[in-house]
Design brief:
The protein has 634 residues and is of the alpha+beta class. It is built from 19 helices and 21 strands. It is globular.
């Protein structure tokens, strides 16, 4: 879900407070700066050059159309402001955007943004008329919560109908959360005015950031533009915050996981499944965050160690609540635990990403924190505790440094092929594990889900192709692009820094056996059927395999049968699975009833939050099964 302020963009938006926007506010066109033209030209040179870009950008009609669509998606990804008729009126800009980017001319991008501004002011005025009217008892119909999969309104009348549904949906959510009619109106007025304020007050610099990010995304999936200072902040391994991870559930940010030992877990007032409604610095009045990109919400949650942050939360089964937390250190570092399962000691290691302290490495420090260093230490500690088998938990892991993927894979595989990388010129490199010998040769299971992507998929595929262990869980996302960061300041002749960085796809990753990663990794034992497609599949040829297919282990049918038997039994796993299947069916329908009683029933079938503990317990049970019965001597 996106607003104008896309998830990686617009630092100012992270701190802008909602405010009243006059219904007749006249948008004023932001002025394009010389630096913005330079950024666009440098991005074009890099993204159109086959020496750098895996799929070079061409400023023809097809390339311009992709750039136009990506820009509209960044500006209005929820399809709340621009109709198909609006986009048709921008046909000239659609065909001109590629050449304009080549010249460093952002005027067509600004013209498109002006149309968004006009529509946003109009939508706010319409929303206010709806809020001024009694809601009435008739709440028939449905709302499409996943706006990215919804159709765009055809025209102004279609936008009016869409906003009637939006206001009814949002009001019903707050009513079920225990808000009074007056509080509902006040909250929604602030929400919609805040949304529009971010658009109306946007500077040329902020609009440019959005266009640059769209330009990167139009060239390759996973591409991104980072404004000055943004990438450095993303590389921090230790930040200060409340200590929880968020995922998107419809338009709402939802707590998916509490950081072990973090402020939220220690305070006991935040639970997995809580929806985050609003955030405030210190003890101030919380600002609505519903619909905001998760990266932007994360920036609001972070701050100085010990500083206070106010959260308004909507629990799964209760009224909304407001709490105050002190921010504390939150890290991406790998963590471990030991689970007793049927007389076995199953170790669990969870690296939240394949991280590395780039600054420490560039400074030549010997004690640099990295995923490979930390995982090796955790394996050694679990071995000292008598670990019988290891579950490597990659749920929600989106990858990270390619060198760390090779480093961690080497800890379990040794110096064997882990991934094949094809560059834009067609050359294929085989990258191997960066450990002379594995540190763990015992039983291994890799737990994955639909959010496992990129480098984490490379790791899981290598384990599966070499039959080093079992892959269990859910089918992964399917993304194998290899990216590199380009510092635009280093390519500028100007003396003042501030042009930002470009994340560009420079290659494609393939499994050791030669298949591309786009279909995702299919687990050896699936906990859920792969029904929820995350995106359209790309058609990329395979490369010759460096590891021929190895038959699955002889005991796989037995392990699958034991898993199926547990899944059929009444218990936590079956309840989790039934809830997830119901949620998948609801996701496919993409309909939320506007009737109060029907909505309550839907909420009861909403499914579980990611990283549910039953998945981990089942992965450990599968691994314990592979070890066979415990002997009497143990």
């Amino acid at each position: 879900m996106k607003r104008f302020c896309a998830g990686l963009l617009v630092l100012a938006c992270a701190f802008a407070a909602p405010a009243q926007v006059p219904a007749g506010a006249a948008p004023q066109a932001p002025a394009v700066t010389a630096d913005q033209g330079a950024v666009a030209r440098m991005m074009y040179l890099l993204q159109s050059d086959p020496r750098y870009a895996y799929r070079p950008f061409k400023p023809d009609d097809a390339g311009s159309a992709r750039l136009f669509d990506a820009y509209v998606d960044v500006l209005d990804g929820q399809k709340l402001y621009l109709s198909e008729a609006d986009l048709a009126a921008l046909r000239r800009q659609r065909n001109a955007l590629g050449d304009a980017a080549k010249r460093g001319d952002l005027r067509p991008a600004m013209e498109i943004f002006e149309k968004l501004r006009e529509s946003a002011v109009e939508r706010l005025a319409f929303a206010r008329t709806l809020l001024a009217e009694p809601m009435g008892p008739d709440r028939t119909g449905y709302w499409q919560p996943d706006r990215e999969r919804a159709s765009r309104a055809a025209d102004r009348a279609g936008l009016d109908a869409l906003w009637r549904g939006l206001v009814r949906n949002d009001a019903l959510d707050l009513e079920l959360a225990g808000y009074t009619p007056g509080q509902i109106n006040e909250s929604l007025e602030a929400r919609y005015a805040g949304d529009v304020r971010l658009i109306v007050d946007a500077s040329a610099e902020e609009v440019g950031y959005s266009f640059f990010d769209a330009f990167a995304k139009a060239v390759a999936e996973g591409g991104a533009y980072y404004p000055p200072g943004m990438q450095e902040a993303r590389n921090d391994l230790v930040v200060n915050g409340p200590g929880f991870e968020l995922v998107r559930r419809g338009r709402y940010p939802e707590v998916a996981r509490l950081t072990p030992g973090g402020p939220a877990q220690a305070g006991g007032k935040v639970a997995v499944g809580d929806r985050l409604l609003a955030v405030a610095e210190g003890g101030g009045v919380p600002d609505d965050v519903v619909g905001l990109p998760l990266d932007q919400i994360t920036r609001r949650l972070r701050g100085a160690q010990g500083s206070a942050v106010t959260l308004e939360l909507l629990p799964v089964d209760g009224p909304a609540k407001t709490i105050l937390l002190a921010r504390g250190p939150v890290t991406e570092f790998a963590e471990s635990t030991l689970l007793p399962v049927d007389g076995r000691r199953i170790g669990v290691i969870r690296p939240n990403s394949f991280y590395v302290d780039y600054k420490g490495r560039s400074d030549g420090r010997a004690d640099v924190r990295s995923a490979s260093r930390d995982v090796a230490l955790l394996v050694a500690e679990l071995q000292r505790q008598g670990m019988d088998g290891l579950v490597f938990d990659l749920r929600g892991n989106q990858g990270g440094a390619l060198s760390e993927v090779m480093g961690v894979a080497g800890l379990f595989l040794g110096p064997v092929p882990v991934v094949q990388v094809r560059e834009s010129g067609g050359r294929v490199m085989v990258l191997k594990g960066e450990s002379p010998e594995p540190v763990w040769t015992g039983p291994l299971a890799v737990l994955v889900d639909q959010r496992t992507a990129s480098g984490a998929e490379m790791f899981a595929a290598a384990i599966q192709d070499h039959r080093r262990g079992l892959v269990v869980g859910q089918r992964t996302f399917g993304r194998g692009s290899i990216h590199s960061l380009f510092d635009l300041d280093s390519r500028s002749s100007g003396s003042e820094p501030g042009l930002g960085m470009l994340k560009l796809a420079i290659g494609e990753a393939f499994r050791p056996r030669g298949d591309n990663l786009d279909p995702g990794i299919i687990p050896d034992i699936e906990f859920l059927p792969a029904v929820k497609a995350t995106r359209p599949a790309l058609r990329i040829p395979s490369v010759p395999g460096v590891r021929h297919d190895v038959p699955p282990p002889d005991d796989l049918p037995m392990l699958a049968a034991a898993h199926d038997a547990r899944a059929r039994q009444e218990g936590d796993f079956r309840r989790w699975r039934d809830g997830e299947l119901a949620a998948q069916a609801a996701w496919q329908r993409n309909e939320a009833s506007l009737d109060e009683q029907a909505r309550r029933a839907e909420a009861a079938m909403a499914g579980n939050s990611p990283d549910h503990p039953v998945e981990l317990r089942e992965a450990a049970a599968v691994l314990a099964d592979s070890l066979g019965p415990v002997s009497a001597q143990q």
